[in-house]
Automatic annotation (TrEMBL):
<feature type="domain" description="HTH araC/xylS-type">
    <location>
        <begin position="168"/>
        <end position="265"/>
    </location>
</feature>
<keyword id="KW-0805">Transcription regulation</keyword>
<dbReference type="InterPro" id="IPR014710">
    <property type="entry name" value="RmlC-like_jellyroll"/>
</dbReference>
<keyword id="KW-0238">DNA-binding</keyword>
<dbReference type="GO" id="GO:0003700">
    <property type="term" value="F:DNA-binding transcription factor activity"/>
</dbReference>
<dbReference type="Pfam" id="PF12833">
    <property type="entry name" value="HTH_18"/>
</dbReference>
<keyword id="KW-0804">Transcription</keyword>
<protein>
    <submittedName>
        <fullName>AraC-like DNA-binding protein</fullName>
    </submittedName>
</protein>
<dbReference type="InterPro" id="IPR009057">
    <property type="entry name" value="Homeodomain-like_sf"/>
</dbReference>
<dbReference type="InterPro" id="IPR011051">
    <property type="entry name" value="RmlC_Cupin_sf"/>
</dbReference>
<dbReference type="InterPro" id="IPR018060">
    <property type="entry name" value="HTH_AraC"/>
</dbReference>
<dbReference type="GO" id="GO:0043565">
    <property type="term" value="F:sequence-specific DNA binding"/>
</dbReference>
Amino acid sequence: MWGAPTLEPPVWSEPVSPPGRMVPEPWLLTSSRYDNDTPEVWDTHAHHEHELIWSGGGVMTVEAEGQLWMVPPVLGIWIPAGVPHRVRAESGSVSFATCFAPERTDIGWDGIVGIALTSVLRELLLYNMNEEMPADLRLRLQRLAVDLLRPVQAASLDIRMPADARLRGIAERIVADPADDRTTQEWALRLGFSARTLTRGFLRETGLSLTQWRILVRIRTALIEIAAGRPVTVVAGRLGYANPSTFIDLFRQVTGHTPAVYFRTFSTLDGTELGLEGQRRR
């Protein structure tokens, strides 16, 4: 009887995350899902692991290194380990955070980048959240997911936020309501200084005039709307453009492509229309 085995699982065999870490050995990654019934803000923080922030629908923004990234369903934002960042998810959105163990994840880039959320990569990350899976199968799945990570041009995603408190107040109002069509003069009167001073301030803080910066915000918002399946004409109207061709011209100036061509470049990565099918399934 002294040698009778215990029925309790041995503690040493259980995967345990190191202090401050999300991914236990021997795994490469782990994901969390957040259903945001109300607006949710994760204040500035940093992780010991790399993080991929991606959307299952709705409006999400990521702020890091003085820039704001909007997260459409076809793209994720890669935040390297140790980089402070802030995340906001609007009411009704579904957000995901996938953490990657740096010492077990072989990537070929540095810094914050956009990652193409192909339908294959998205489904692998979702399937990995299934707890019922043999360990060897999970490892193979995770290795394949890491192999499928592909950075894309982040220039079409990031928006530099002004640091000056007064200018930032304007910027946050425009981000919250991109269709707001108040002129530079009207914003300046609200703050109590001249339109020239406001323009110089935005140029100094963001590299753009207020008008140019607002156009950028509108185009970034359009990425989310169009990826969610809304027609370009509807999106143009929601953003304050009575003439859709004006919106399409601005979209081309910012991204280098018309909306149709822009999203086609992502669909050809794996032969499917990204974001739309996956969102309908959920």
